[in-house]
Write a sequence for this structure.
């Protein structure tokens, strides 16, 4: 029986989790990134800068049964996003042979809804921010290949090592009580788990939808999340920091993710943050 191969382009935290999962399944895993020193043991390294056509050309033609792209912008500036999600993505697609299934990780930032409305995969995507515009352009490039693909739009990712929210609560930099602002999130382990689930679904010959919203079961206001965390951490809820410019307040439905058969490890923010804080206290 031929060994399945998986190419992970931008093999960072989520990609490394995915790599470990499929290495344990005896898949051949290839990791492409600028610096391969941090790749998990067993991953075949491909070191290149996707923003450089010359760097990518040195790799030759890229072939794998399955491809996952988890790209990271060079900076939070228009040119940083364009360099990776438009020019860099073009370089990767030019080098890539058609896979059996391609998964492209993107973000709920492609939506611009901001009045607490519920959205799903069929909702309008008319982003005003440069980041959302570049991500949407990247999704369109993926669709234009004609290959079997799925775009996975993750909400705010949290989990081990991602302590921004906890630190804000501890430092008294919570959101002010008004206006209410809905947020959507997903635990890092569910990002890895859902991507692995989709690849195994494709390998089994089952239908994989062209787009999924990768969020947990419970959109929640930032105020509810931070006040709950303050209670758990036994600190006062304070909004002493400067006001943070937030993306639009919306509630993302994960019905399609649920209908796929995937079972969330952390179905809401409470289950995920409780585990994180437990680990921090034991460290």
């Amino acid at each position: 029986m031929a060994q399945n191969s998986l190419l992970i382009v931008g093999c960072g935290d989520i990609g490394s989790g995915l790599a470990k999962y499929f290495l344990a399944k005896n898949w051949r895993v290839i990791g492409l990134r600028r610096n391969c020193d941090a790749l998990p043991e067993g991953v075949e390294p491909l070191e290149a800068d996707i923003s450089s056509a010359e760097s990518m050309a040195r790799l030759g033609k890229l072939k794998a049964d399955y491809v996952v792209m988890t790209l990271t912008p060079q900076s939070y500036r228009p040119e940083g996003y364009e360099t990776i999600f438009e020019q860099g993505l073009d370089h990767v697609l030019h080098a890539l042979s058609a896979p059996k299934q391609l998964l492209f990780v993107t973000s709920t930032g492609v939506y611009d809804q901001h009045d607490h409305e519920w959205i799903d995969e069929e909702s309008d995507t008319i982003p005003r921010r440069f980041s959302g515009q570049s991500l949407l352009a990247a999704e369109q490039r993926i669709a234009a290949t004609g290959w079997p693909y799925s775009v996975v739009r993750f909400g705010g990712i949290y989990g081990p090592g991602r302590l921004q929210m906890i630190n804000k609560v501890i430092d008294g930099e919570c959101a002010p009580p008004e206006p209410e602002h809905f947020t959507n999130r997903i635990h890092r382990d569910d990002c890895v788990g859902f991507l692995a689930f989709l690849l195994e679904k494709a390998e089994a010959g089952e239908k994989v939808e062209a787009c999924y919203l990768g969020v947990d079961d419970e959109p929640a206001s930032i105020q509810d999340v931070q006040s709950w965390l303050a209670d758990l951490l036994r600190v006062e809820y304070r909004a002493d920091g400067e006001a943070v410019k937030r993306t639009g307040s919306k509630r993302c439905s994960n019905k399609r993710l649920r209908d796929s058969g995937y079972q969330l490890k952390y179905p809401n923010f409470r289950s995920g943050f409780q585990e994180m804080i437990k680990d921090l206290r034991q460290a």
In short: The chain is about 35% helix and 20% strand. The mean pLDDT is 94.
